[in-house]
């Protein structure tokens, strides 16, 4: 019997730390670096600002100003907002205040978690401790996803405290446990997690921090604009409703479809379509990032 066929060696554990230890190591890197604290602080400020601005917007929607040029239409919209469906929309909007944009924070977290290793030249030590680079990248994705889930939970709890108070002051009654309200809130969790993994995959493909951050922001903002423009141009020559729904192909539009209390835009597809599109982008980037990291030099 050859040594390689020995049952003892066959049953031995492979070298390197286990998956949970790898994830804990990545989480420790986040906690031990001061610069990482800027992201949660900025996220908290942005969430508070978005919640405040959203509250003012809905207040003026429910109580239109007297000097409006089209006051009759504003009053009709206010009456619509006080119907059961309208009140549920207001509640869902308050509970998800700013999340369509704040998903960029998990994306930045995922990018920085990967690119900082190469910027600070610590990737070599990490890959020496665990030579199987795919496992390291999966641990980074998992760590970024855990942090994203915590950010979503913190934002949802903050909005969950403010929203009932706001609805009470505006004399609006909406069942917060209803599916029309709960669906956009619950969709926020996969949106945050997927954007974190999206950023980690993007950071693995484009190692430069500035380049990957710029590309990520460009894909978010530019992709939405391009998708809207292309769908509108096609609709001009082929006027069918499903053509306008093609705008969901942009990651930002897919997120908007997931989180919107109602239709994110005319002829928008259901929320599950946005989830599928965003998951497709994330899986593609994560797989590409793992493959490239496994083949390229660590330095």
What percentage of residues falls in helices of 4 or more residues? over 70%
The first-to-last residue Cα distance is 41 Å
The total strand number stands at 0
Label the structural class.
mainly alpha
From the alpha carbons, calculate the radius of gyration and give it in angstroms.
23 Å
Polypeptide structure, described:
With 299 residues, this protein is an all-alpha fold. The protein has one domain. It is built from 14 helices and no strands. Helix 2 crosses helix 9, helix 3 (38-62) runs antiparallel to helix 5 and helix 7 (104-119) runs antiparallel to helix 9. Residues 1-13 have low confidence and may be disordered.
């Amino acid at each position: 019997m050859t040594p390689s066929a020995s049952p003892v060696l066959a049953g031995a554990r492979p070298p390197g730390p286990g998956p949970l230890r790898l994830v804990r190591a990545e989480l420790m890197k986040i906690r031990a670096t001061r610069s990482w604290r800027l992201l949660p602080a900025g996220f908290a400020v942005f969430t508070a600002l978005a919640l405040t601005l959203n509250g003012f917007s809905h207040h003026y929607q429910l109580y239109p100003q007297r000097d409006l040029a089209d006051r009759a239409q504003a009053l009709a919209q206010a009456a619509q907002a006080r119907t059961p469906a309208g009140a549920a929309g207001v509640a869902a909007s308050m509970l998800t205040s700013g999340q369509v944009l704040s998903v960029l924070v998990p994306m930045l977290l995922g990018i920085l978690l990967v690119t900082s290793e190469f910027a600070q030249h610590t990737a070599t030590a990490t890959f020496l401790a665990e030579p199987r680079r795919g496992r390291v990248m999966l641990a980074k994705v998992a760590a970024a996803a855990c942090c994203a889930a915590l950010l979503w939970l913190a934002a949802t709890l903050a909005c969950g405290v403010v929203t009932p108070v706001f609805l009470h002051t505006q004399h609006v009654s909406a069942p917060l446990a209803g599916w029309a309200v709960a669906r956009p809130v619950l969709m926020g969790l996969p949106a945050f997690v997927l954007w974190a993994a999206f950023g980690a995959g993007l950071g693995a493909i484009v190692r430069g921090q500035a380049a990957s951050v710029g590309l990520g922001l460009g894909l978010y903002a530019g992709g939405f604009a391009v998708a809207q423009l292309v769908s509108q141009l096609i609709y001009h020559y082929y006027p069918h409703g499903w053509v306008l729904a093609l705008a969901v192909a942009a990651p930002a539009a897919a997120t908007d479809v997931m989180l919107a209390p109602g239709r994110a835009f005319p002829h928008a597809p259901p929320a599950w379509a946005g989830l599928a599109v965003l998951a497709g982008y994330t899986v593609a980037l994560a797989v590409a990032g793992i493959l490239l990291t496994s083949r390229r030099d660590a330095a």
